[in-house]
UniProtKB/TrEMBL annotation:
Gene3D superfamilies: 3.40.50.10940
The keyword Iron-sulfur is annotated on this UniProt entry: no
A single GO cellular-component term on record: cytosol
Membrane spanning residue stretches: none
Highest classification ranks of the organism: Bacteria, Bacillati, Bacillota, Clostridia, Lachnospirales
Protein family according to the UniProt entry: Belongs to the arabinose isomerase family.
Annotated protein name in UniProt: L-arabinose isomerase
Gene Ontology BP terms: L-arabinose catabolic process to D-xylulose 5-phosphate
L-arabinose isomerase C-terminal domain mapped to chain residues: 330-473
Native source species: Roseburia zhanii
Amino acid sequence: MLLQKEYKFWFCTGSQDLYGDECLAKVAEHSKRIVDELNRSGILPYEVVWKPTLITNELIRKTFNEANADETCAGVITWMHTFSPAKSWILGLQEYRKPLMHFHTQFNEELPYDTIDMDFMNENQSAHGDREYGHIVSRMRIERKVVVGHWSDPVVVGKIASWMRTAVGIMESSHIRVMRVADNMRNVAVTEGDKVEAQIKFGWEVDAYPVNEIAEAVAAVSASDTNALVDEYYDKYDILLEGRDPEEFKKHVAVQAQIEIGFERFLKEKNYQAIVTHFGDLGALKQLPGLAIQRLMEKGYGFGAEGDWKVAAMVRLMKIMTAGMKDAKGTSMLEDYTYNLVKGKEGILEAHMLEICPSIADGPISIKCQPLSMGDREDPARLVFTSKEGHGIATSLIDLGNRFRLIINDVECKKTEKPMPKLPTATNFWTPEPDMYTGAEAWILAGGAHHTAFTYDLTAEQMGDWANAMGIEAVYIDKDTKIRDFKRDLMLGEVFYR
Ligand code: MN
């Protein structure tokens, strides 16, 4: 579900024929060795593929166009081993349409003090050639990632690994299809947006379906399929009856099992990877999808509540970018709900009515069945848990009328001081950086929403690089944020994106 393609990255080394065949043979040998070692590092989430040294306009153009055409290629990593006259790159770069990295490295780590001569200098001059190449990419205003350092340094390889996930996010963004079975909640502004512009900028396809079409798919799920999934729930989760009749409770849970299966079948059949619902527009559905949506998010589907299709697409994007990550801590939609404002213990209680992804859970997960206190349906069954501690990022994509802005806030997730036994929803609790007061002030000044797409597993840099590649504004709220500077950033955005 998460990723259908086995993506690869091409490694293209630049040089020229000025230095003779012997030098070019060494260039090829060195770049092959670097590619082998990168692949052996165990750090990269995707394979690097070596390509023959690029020395002419024709070959550069041909290689970039092959990269465009190859569906498994998610980006090109470029490195100028020697001096490569950058006018040779213009045509190829003009025609190239995928993520680009400039890896500013060199083969040797140390100056060979005893043996260095002019032949060595001419053969190993990326300090020189990479500046020539960097100039033309800047002059052409092409978005690219620059990574600097020796290829054997795990920190440097980690930066390549991190960018690879961004690049796959850029590639996969245009395959995100969001199913809307409800419109945005009446009168709510921040969950709205221009869907045509979103498709132009991000490639997202956002389509509406009558809610009763998906409700019919739910009703078509057999009792035996439903009961098998209920058994799975009862094996996997703690059941918190809280005084309810066990049989009645199980029937409520079965409604969610039927929704999970019905929704997933409908989404698969119609090729959607994200969905929005609305508690006020449920058609023939007996309960607001709670447990069902939580499980679908865990499987990799994006979700947004109250018709929030931007959050649904962002959650899906983050699920893609973290696909296959070892020791991933989780990604979910969340909502800023209520504060703890006690000095020294400040934080935001994050929750939603129901729909929090269990991938962020810490410890046991329980099923509860409680009234929703909104809408007019049965008490929905939901998964309840608290979330992991540690660093994460909360993001909000908003439509400002003339542009999209992505707000990225570094947050520190904690346990609440005391348990909250009466609260029937999953929660997270975090303090935004740089502190509660500055973080919340900056968020509000930037126009950030109450719904967020949250993850423990990506960095602000990765999401900001994605936003840059999409050609939209990104603003960062982190340990360095000062309100005066932040307001100037917002003013600069007003000018730049006019
Ligand atoms: Mn909400």
